[in-house]
Amino acid sequence: MGTYAANLAGVFRGRTGIAPVYTDAGRFYQATYLTKKMRELLTDVMDVLSGGTGSHVLQLRTPFGGGKTHSLVALLHLVRDRAASIAACPDLKDIADPGEVQIAVLSGEELDPLSPMSATGVETHTLWGELAAQLGRYELVEQHDLTGSAPGGDVLRQVIGDGPTLILLDEVLIYVEKAMALQRAESTAGRQAMLFVQALTEAISAQPRAAMVYSLQASVGEAVGAEGLLSDLDKLVARVDAKREPVSGDEVLRVVQRRLFAELGDEAIHREVARSYSDVLRKQLLATAETGDARREAEEAADSLEKRVLAAYPLHPDLLDLMYHRWGSLPSYQRTRGALQFLAAVVHALWQSGAKSPLIGPGDIDFTDEASRGAFFSQVGERERYTSVLSSDVTSEGAGCTTVDRTLGADSPTIAQLRVGTRVATAIMLYSFGAREGEDRGVLESDLVRSVLVPGLTRNIVISALHDLREEELYLHYTGRRYRFEATPNLTKLVRDEASKLNSNEVLTEVRAELDKQLQGNKGVALWPETPGGIADERPLFTVAYLHPDWSEDRDPQEKFIEQAGKGSPRRYRNGLALVLPDKAQFDLARHAIRLRLAAKSLLDQHRKYNFSAEQIEELQEKAANARRDGSAAIGAAYSTVTIPTRSRSGDAPYVLEPSDLRTMLAAGRALHERVVEALSQRVFSSVTTAKLVALAGLGPDRKAVTCADLVDWFYSYYEFTKLWDKKVIASAIANAVKTSELGYAVGLVREEEEIVPRDARQVRFGERLTADEIDLSDDAAILWHDYARECLQATVEPAPNAPQSEAPAAPQPTPPSLAPRPQGGTSAGGAPAAPAPNDSVRVADIEAVLDRSGLFNLRRALSWLSDQPGQARIEIKIHAEGEFDRVSFRNGLVEPLEEATEVLDVDTQ
Question: Does domain 2-248 correspond to CATH entry 3.40.50.2300?
Fold first, then answer.
């Protein structure tokens, strides 16, 4: 590292141990890139020393390591050994030759106000004493030196003399600040030093062939808080053109090239490399360019990169940019010297390891090399805070980036060799320090991709690596669309690690709890039956069974749940069951989300252990809330299909399993069970027509009565019967059939031989208005064939022949309204309108009507009224419909309900 840290005093005195590249004028200029500003500095100073016009006092104002000391050494060598300097750097031959020049060097790093100096053979105690001793005129300031009192201008003019004189002051601020602590009578040594420097500048300005060049830091921050001193020293030169910056902009890369590489190889190779990198960038940018302007910008960016690679070879220009523009904002960074020290270590490590890369870019830095790592931290600072970060996420064997390397390189030796995960993580580490003016720390995805692309690597692979790193790296943060490493743990990684501690059963228990919460309040739900016995049988309620997330058709076929009821016994209520099949991918998402929610909650419970900040706690709470929402949404979509057994029309099997795809149904704002019910709505009904009930009951001369319990069993057992959500549907249908005199109903039964007979005929209900709640669906209640119901009721109003007369007449039994004689007009005794007389009644009606879609609602009203009236009705329907109808939906929604209601004579579709 010392190779790139010039020591002006050491070079001036020829001190041993100084690198020959600094002490030898020829070697120095061979290794020096003569920047534009440095050449101007040399020219101006030599002109003044030769008696020309120009500024006699010049200030070098650059950041640490910005070339100040190097420029002073360049002046020293040009004055001392002009021939060797020009031989090594012919560009110097046109600069004026002042002849023999007396030189004095005052280095704030070397001189100590508390210790005498004797390098000249004369013991001196102050800057003016040392200056006079170097110029051979110590006697002029001896008393001033011993008393510590700065001499005036006249004395200093005598010390300088009339001949060409060059005075070089390096790091003056350091000396003055140290001297401020030393008391000198009513003043301080530092104050006297400031008076001396000010008087010296005035004395030199008055001498026609004298020049002074002194160096200052570039900012208050770099002056270590000595803001007042820096300001005072800065004001020693008033003219702007007297302030020089030896190295600026892209000249840094030229300096680096010259200092690090003796020669750069075949220029044809440079052009090939530049063209290859340009082609890679062009291809990636054009792939995402959607407009003509974007394509032109892609071409321009690629052409610009080609030119910059040629200029910066063998260094990637983005590496130099981030060091100059980003690290340059750091107080610890030493511009040119820092770039040289860091890149020297990097190049050495890559050379020693035999690494092969067309360019040295941000992703090529070998942080496993101790020297490279040390030079990096020396320039960016934060060694203590970030050493563990670098080790954890980049250099250790267990770092997340090595996992990404293996994952991405598993199927491609080329990608494996590029170590994409480590490449990207390394670049992000470099970009994590400093920032361009007006920007936050870190690197945008687009800039990062461009800086790590090499021939053979594509943008998609880099993006994949980035996404994987966000999951694997503990200290990698993605904030404000920028990637950067922070000394605080990445909560995403912490949450993921915490999540990995949870076992599958814990997570599955939470999944079930969430699903149970979503299904809560719905009747007839069986959740995750492990065996057919887990689904209740002989329960007159349509059951929807949600199968376990790990259910497999191969292991537990659906037919097993339909046909069995546990312990080998067959299922009776097969017509009252639907199976909802899991979507394993959605359940995996649900498990993942719930695992993250549990992990975030666990970390929140341990916040004192991790010493989380308020912002981190808030972020964890947000992660938990997001995971809760994601888990709920995934569970809501975790079932893809509902299947239901329906009657087989082929006769090869008693039933077929008919599926409905839940994924095609609108899910927004609707719960899972709502969508299942809707999917089943064309197969499972909440009502049944009286005609259907009568037809299914099969009543007639040969079967005059059926118990309600048997009827319920038939509905839930046989596929020929309509599937019903609830047995109350049957009760409602019975009530409607009794009201319309299509069926009778009786409670209290006796079995006579093979027939079911009402125990008391007076309990037969026929043609009466009943509610569903009044219908008993037990085996002690029955529905009766309408003729049989009339017979039973007739027996209650006509006494049998020769029946004995009781002493007191029996109370008259009420006659059902449907059988009572109708009054012939007028009003009833209570004043209500009387029922219409027979001659006012409609006995037979034949109606033909043609309706469009808007008339369907009124048709439903008309048919509903007709179904509530006594008497018989036969309805013939002819439907002509045109439109784009889904064939399956057309069949399920229109044709089959009609088939279930009556006989469909013909269906003709095109």
Answer: no
